[in-house]
Design a protein that fits this description.
Layout (H helix, E strand, L loop, with lengths): L23 H12 L17 H4 L18 E5 L5 E6 L3 E4 L13 E5 L5 E6 L15 E10 L15 E8 L3 E8 L8 E2 L2 E2 L2 E2 L6 E5 L3 E2 L13 E2 L2 H7 L3 H11 L2 E2 L6
């Protein structure tokens, strides 16, 4: 992966003091009550930093909560404080909050980076994306290619037949090189395999808004002066296919395919 951004820490819980004999029943009752409350759970053990204020403010707002589940062996589950979104990630990876750009997202939206032990950003999660309508003149459309496309059961329910089902996609768009990205989408790229941009976003509930989980929210071709170390591009389609066929990317793919939201939280 070639993307990167900020940092975080984890914390260890101190061993509780042994209760005095007379308070044992009260302690047991308090623990049971806490376990029944969603607010006691917070994010599951994921090695992440404490949640940012924007993440904590999201709440459920009447939306169905993301399902609680157990991770496979060698993986763990991350769930945001409001239980809007959950996904699996390798045990050694961490989830860290990000500071959103002002005016780009709705208030109370969620922003997280998933990083490998080496500090590489494998994916970012953003909700409440405010996507402006952008025109696409015929002469600016350019060929794009789909390297991979798989159905994404975001809610564990069948998608609505009237909508394009959410999918995990790996796509290239043509500029002076082939620019690549991966993520989730519910939008067809463009007619005749031509497009100005390729959004990696899915429309969710009022609590989620339009959200993304991948390396880019939108893929666009860039001019040479606009590229940098974080730009993923290839000289040929074959190079791109080899890059996205590595075991390292297979782990990223499994993580993104594991994302789930509450029933009714995605349209």
């Amino acid at each position: 992966m070639q993307q990167a951004r900020s940092t975080g820490q984890d914390a260890r819980r101190a061993r509780p003091a042994r209760p005095v004999r007379g308070g044992r029943r009260a302690l047991v009752a308090a623990v049971l009550a806490c376990l029944l409350l969603t607010s006691c759970s917070g994010p599951q053990d994921d090695g992440s930093a404490p949640p940012s204020p924007s993440a904590s403010a999201s709440g459920t707002s009447g939306a169905a909560a993301a399902p609680l589940r157990e991770a496979r062996d060698g993986w763990k589950v991350f769930t945001d404080p409001g239980r809007l979104v959950s996904f699996e990630l390798p045990e050694a990876w961490v989830v860290q909050p990000l500071e959103p750009a002002v005016g780009t997202y709705a208030p109370g939206s969620l922003h997280y980076a998933v990083r490998t032990p080496e500090g590489t950003t494998a994916a970012e999660l953003h909700t409440g994306i405010l996507t402006p309508e952008v025109s696409c003149p015929e002469q600016q459309r350019t060929p794009y290619y789909v390297i991979g496309s798989e159905p994404l059961p975001l809610t564990g329910e069948a998608p609505a037949t009237t909508d394009i089902e959410p999918r995990f996609v790996v796509r290239l768009i043509t500029g002076f090189r082939f620019f690549g990205s991966y993520g989730i989408t519910d939008t067809v790229g463009g007619a005749d395999r031509l497009a100005c941009s390729l959004p990696n976003t899915v429309q969710g509930s009022d609590a989620l808004g339009r959200f993304s989980f991948g390396d880019l929210e939108v893929l666009v071709p860039k001019a040479p002066a606009e590229t940098g170390p974080q730009t993923v591009s290839f000289g040929t389609i074959g190079e791109a296919e080899a890059y996205y066929a590595t075991p390292e990317f297979a782990t990223v793919r499994e993580m993104i395919l594991s994302v789930r939201v509450g029933a009714g939280a995605a349209s």
